[in-house]
Amino acid sequence: MKSVRIGLIGAGMIAAKHLKAYREMPEAEVVAVCSRTEASARRCADEWGIPHVYTDFRALLARDDIDAVDICLHNNLHAPVTIAALEAGKHVYCEKPLAGSYCDGKQMLDAAAAAGKTLHIQLGFLYRPYARAARRLVEGGALGKLYHGRTVGFRRRNRPFVDGFGSKDFVHRETAGGGALYDFGVYHISLLLHLLGMPRPERMTGQLYQEIAMDEARRVESGYDVEELGVGFVRLAGGVTLDLFESWAVNLDSLSPSVLLGSKGGLKLEPFSFHTTICDTELDCTGDLDAMNFRWMNTQPLEYAYASSEAHWIAALTGKVPLLPTAQLALDTLLIQEGVALSSRLGREVTAEETIAASRPAAMVL
Questions:
Q1: Angle of helix 326-346 relative to helix 102-115, nearest 10 degrees?
Q2: Does this model's pTM top 0.85?
Q3: Annotated catalytic, 187?
Q4: I need a surface site. Which of 22, 26, 226, 242 has the fewest CB within 10 A?
């Protein structure tokens, strides 16, 4: 395709972020928007100059002049709408996380393969300057053999809805699938898997917590039944390991950032620093990522395709770059998240195979 005609499904806060990105891309044209209410769809259409409005996503998918759809819905709506879009012959860009359960996510990947269409997941941290710098160092061999990663997601007290922002759909398992480990952890886990070369998850252990006090009326109104903190340890193929700390609420002032360890060097991701030993001397290095990003964006013609998730999707659909394996990354991330949740319930380590066998549909029926 020389250009991509897009149908947007979902017209909330996340949709606006996607639309802002598309506005900068001459190859992308958003021609239709769908929301549950006509008022929200029309408000979005008026603000962003979108010509066609729908309240039934199936009617939008029936248009033969739409190449691809961008799905900005809550987690447990991802699978049914994505599968319907793929079966309608559309390429799909879906918000994170992939789905509310592993089995739903696997059906999404299977549907993409059967339809011969691409499935791209919004894993936005892959495109941040520190992630791109880390990838260059890994590919250049600066870290040597990679053997361990740590993900850290930190919020002191910033839970959706009960702490004053976002909707209650984020904290109710029926719509969200999970809490901090799912909503927040998807970014960090997928990035570390990406940097580690996507080793297959094999065994998981962990614990989910909901311990910090909250406004009781907001708890009751939201049906808050997800974790505010998820911790875990993952054994990956090839002897590689990963430990997790993903929090919406915890009584600490700060935590150190996510890290990646190799035989020759180690990385802290945000703020970014590189640590190594040369000539028997321990060296700690920081980098000017603003200068790096400016130089790469202005000297390398395709670097823009790795600067945002939306830019990457459009560049891949127009044949400029190969699509990163975001769907598989998101599915492996979901396997880890579901494995940690299963381990928390059972009180023991679990295998990937038993996690997959225990996975049940979470998708909402439409």
A1: 160
A2: yes
A3: yes
A4: 26
Q: Which two tokens stand for residue 177?
A: 């699938």
Q: For 238-295, how does the pLDDT look when each residue is reduced to its tens digit (9 = 90+)?
A: 999 999 999 999 999 999 999 999 999 999 999 999 999 999 999 999 999 999 999 9
Residues 45, 19 contacting (CB under 8 angstroms): no
Q: Single out the catalytic residue among 130, 187, 224, 306.
A: 187
The kind and range of the H/E element at 93 are strand 91-94
CB 131 within 8 A of CB 139: no
CA of 147: how far to CAs of 189, 265, 266, in Å?
15, 11, 10
**What tokens were used for 324?**
């990163």
The residue annotated as part of the active site, out of 90, 96, 106, 117, is: 96
- Rg of the chain, C-alpha, whole Å: 21
Phi and psi angles of residue 211, each rounded to the nearest 5 degrees, phi first? -125, -25
Residue pLDDT, tens place only, 203-227: 999 999 999 999 999 999 999 999 9
State both tokens at 72. Answer: 């900005």
Q: Is 40 helix (H, G, I), strand (E, B) or coil?
A: helix
First to last CA, the chain: 31
Burial of 142 (C-beta count, 10 Å sphere; 0-12/13-18/19+): middle
Our answer to whether residue 96 is catalytic in this structure is yes
- Evaluate whether 333 touches 100 at the Cβ level (below 8 Å): no
Nearest to 101 by CA among 71, 138, 76, 128: 76
The DSSP-derived string for 320-341 is: SSPPP-HHHHHHHHHHHHHHHH
Question: Letter for the amino acid at 257?
Answer: P
d(CA 292, CA 289) in angstroms, rounded, equals 5
Tokens representing 88 are 């309608």
97, 181 in Cβ contact below 8 A?
Answer: no
